[in-house]
Specification:
Number of domains: 2
Order of helices and strands: EEEHEEHEHHHEHEHEEH
Largest sheet: 6 strands, mixed
CATH architecture of the largest domain: 3-Layer(aba) Sandwich
Distance between the termini: 34 Å
CATH topology of the largest domain: Rossmann fold
Shape: globular
Strand content: 25-35%
Strand order of the largest sheet: 6-7-8-3-9-10
Structural class: alpha/beta
Helix content: 25-40%
Number of helices: 8
C-alpha cells in the first residue's frame, strides 16, 4: 500500500511549518525526505505517525483515510525511530529489540512468545548484530547502537518504518554502510522513510526522494543527477548545504 499525502499544511503560533505538502511514499523501498534543519521534515513525520494533527490536508494508506485515525490506530502501520533517541541503560541488544515486540493487551504481565523470539532473531540477523545480542547497549559503538535501534524499529513488523535523521554523527564510511543496509531491507518487504540532509548518499541509495525547502515540496521523484544543480537555484538562505548541517 502506498502512502499518499495531499495538501498537508501545519501552522503553529501563526508560523507556517508545512505548506500544501503533496507526495507519494511507495509501499516498498527507501524513500528519503531531504532538507535542511528547519525545513519541516520532523514535523511531517510526526503528523504521519499521529503525534501531531495537520492544520489542513489529508493522507491515505492505500484506500484508508489515515488523517482520520487516532495515534493508536496509526501505530498499527507506523514504527518511528526519533532523532537523538536515547540509549536505555543496562539493557542488552536483545532485550531492547524485544521491547519492540511489546503490544499492550490490557494486562500488566507480558512474556515473549516463541513468535516474538523468532522475530527478534530475524531482526538481529537482518541488521547484522546477532553476535552482539548479549552486549549492553552502552558498550557498543555509535554505529552498532544505531543498528540496534533499527532492529528495534523492525521488530513490530509495521508496514512503514520512519527514521528521523538517525544517521547524524556517523563518519562517512559507517553512514554509507547504513544506507546500504536500509536499501537492502526496504527492497524486500518494507517501506522506509528516512529524513536526511545528505544529498550525495540520498541520491546514491534512495529509490525515491522528496525535497522539502521552507516547508514546501520542491522536488519529488527518483534520484536525479541534476538535483544538486536544482537546489543551487534556490535562495541562499534555504539551500541544502552539504557538510554544514549538524
Amino acid at each position: 500500500m502506498e502512502l499518499m499525502l495531499t495538501g498537508i499544511s501545519f501552522v503553529r503560533r501563526e508560523k507556517t511549518i508545512l505548506s500544501d505538502v503533496s507526495a507519494i511514499v511507495p509501499g516498498r523501498g527507501l524513500t528519503c525526505l531531504l532538507g535542511t534543519n528547519g525545513a519541516g521534515k520532523t514535523t511531517l513525520l510526526r503528523i504521519l505517525s499521529g503525534e501531531l494533527k495537520s492544520t489542513s490536508g489529508e493522507y491515505f494508506i492505500g484506500d484508508i483515510d489515515a488523517s482520520a485515525l487516532s495515534q493508536r490506530e496509526l501505530a498499527e502501520y507506523f514504527a518511528i525511530i526519533p532523532q537523538n533517541a536515547p540509549i536505555p541503560p543496562y539493557l542488552t541488544v536483545s532485550e531492547m529489540v524485544g521491547l519492540g515486540r511489546f503490544q499492550p493487551r490490557g494486562s500488566s504481565k507480558w512474556h515473549l512468545s516463541s513468535q516474538d523470539q523468532e522475530s527478534i532473531d530475524t531482526c538481529l540477523t537482518r541488521c547484522q548484530i546477532d553476535k552482539l545480542r548479549n552486549r549492553r547497549l552502552d558498550e557498543l559503538s555509535g554505529g552498532e547502537q544505531r543498528r540496534a535501534w533499527l532492529a528495534f524499529g523492525l521488530a513490530p513488523d509495521k508496514k512503514y518504518l520512519m527514521l528521523d535523521e538517525t544517521l547524524d554523527g556517523m563518519d562517512i564510511f559507517v553512514k554509507r554502510t547504513f544506507f546500504q543496509l536500509l536499501k537492502d531491507i526496504a527492497s524486500r518487504d518494507k517501506s522506509i522513510l528516512l529524513a536526511s540532509h545528505d544529498l550525495a548518499l540520498v541520491n546514491e541509495f534512495a529509490d525515491r526522494i522528496i525535497v522539502l525547502i521552507g516547508g514546501k515540496v520542491i522536488f519529488e521523484g527518483p534520484p536525479d543527477s541534476n538535483l544538486e544543480r536544482l537546489l543551487s537555484d534556490t535562495p541562499e538562505d534555504t539551500q541544502i548545504r552539504l557538510g554544514n548541517e549538524k
